[in-house]
Specification:
heterodimer; A: 253 residues; mainly alpha; MetI-like fold; 2 domains; 11 helices; B: 273 residues
Chain lengths: 253, 273
Amino acid sequence: MRTAHWLVAAALAGVVWASFGFLALDLGRVFTAEALAQMGNYAASFFPPDLSADHLARIARGTLETIAISAISTLLAAILGLLLALPAAGRFGPAARALARLALNFLRSIPELVWAALMVIAAGLGPFAGTLALTWHTAGVIGRLFAETLENTPPDPARALRLSGGRAAVAFLYGTLPSVMPQLVAYTLYRWEINIRMAAILGVVGAGGLGQMLYVSLSLFQQQQAATVILAMLVIVTLVDAASSWLRQRFAS
Amino acid sequence: MSSAIRDPAAGPRLLFTLCVVVLAWPGFTLTEFDPVALFDPRSRDTMGKFVASFFPMETSAEFLRLVARSTLETLAIATAGTALAVAIACPLALVVTRSLSVSRIGPGPGLALGRAVRVPARFILMFFRSIPEIVWALLFVRAVGLGPAAGVLAIGVTYGGMLGKVYSEILESNDTRAATALLEAGGGRIAAFLYGLWPVALPELVSYSVYRWECAVRASVIMGFVGAGGLGLQMELSMRMLNGGEVSTILIVFLLLVALADAISALLRRITA
């Protein structure tokens, strides 16, 4: 190891030590026998998970709601993203381009959960707030990806249509869109995958879906019901992972 | 329009759009999709006043001091959490890594024991990382109380699971011949790791851990929303009081903090590479 490495290692150790100090965090206190027993009791109260038909029906509804939130928001975000991507790709002049990019950056840099907290104020508790929140953030991400795709696509087909007398809208619809469509669909599906996972947890700030169920049951000290919600989240995430890797392998070539 | 210039793709496109609309329809009901509610006079009033109060930003010295303290707290939570994650990940990764397995070299007495240890270790790593950090934070807030300790534990557990998996993948994908040679010559697991794998894999291990620290900064802001301390807690409080000026200040600080974490992480990775 070079001297620089030792210096970095020492600095890191110092920063970690300072962090624990600043938080007045005594991990020794967290791991005393008493605290551990308390945590153990809390963990044990999650078992057995509530598998009654009644609760499972509610879980199924929460799952459907989660998937609906993710699907609708991804769909809306794809539309909004495309609308913003056109100016962001420089099709309406440099001023519109700068403005659209600013809007996309703004939408993207605020995390989904912060959007959700804001939308809960605007639209009230419930899945609608979650849908709006995911729409804003995803539109920012997708709009940027779309804009890049539009910039990188060969302009010749659209130009040929323009030169033979077609209007700009026609040239875009029949000259540009067909060649970028597969890429746009791929990006949208990829964001949908991420949004399913996000929609499952967004509810902890009150934005509907499984997250809200989890938050409510934990607040009511119904740990066994909460355990089922967590299990449902794990199942969704695992299924989405498996489906996406299967689809990727199947269609990657 | 004469039939000669009709759009040949219109039929399939129309059908595709129709399918999307039909599939999406129940979704709009399920999500209680109701844009009109946004313009209902009462909620428009609340939201309008809230958004209008975003400007001017709150810049009183007292509030800025509070924000500065929360920012430091967020950084400290991320750093302490990542340190805890590394402490959780290292032993588990050492157990799980296949290229360090003595029993795999040949049919030895340790095979069953090795598997008996490795399977639960893998399961723990998977369990830790499959539950999102915000859910861990919710749980820890209830187990250890409101405050930064819950955030540190949540990051430690979730990222411990991720780091453990990635560490073992890095240790398996690098050149493992030196480690195998050491094991076959009778060396122990720790020796094979220290002299066979560590020198080759170190830059990659450090660089991934630093990247995770960067993610932890972002995550610790968000976890504040459920009561785990830091900048997120401050934002949640300001939102609850509908104090837009404070919210916009905190949002700007958050964006700056993420950019700063980005820059620090890039710098650290350049030094260690």
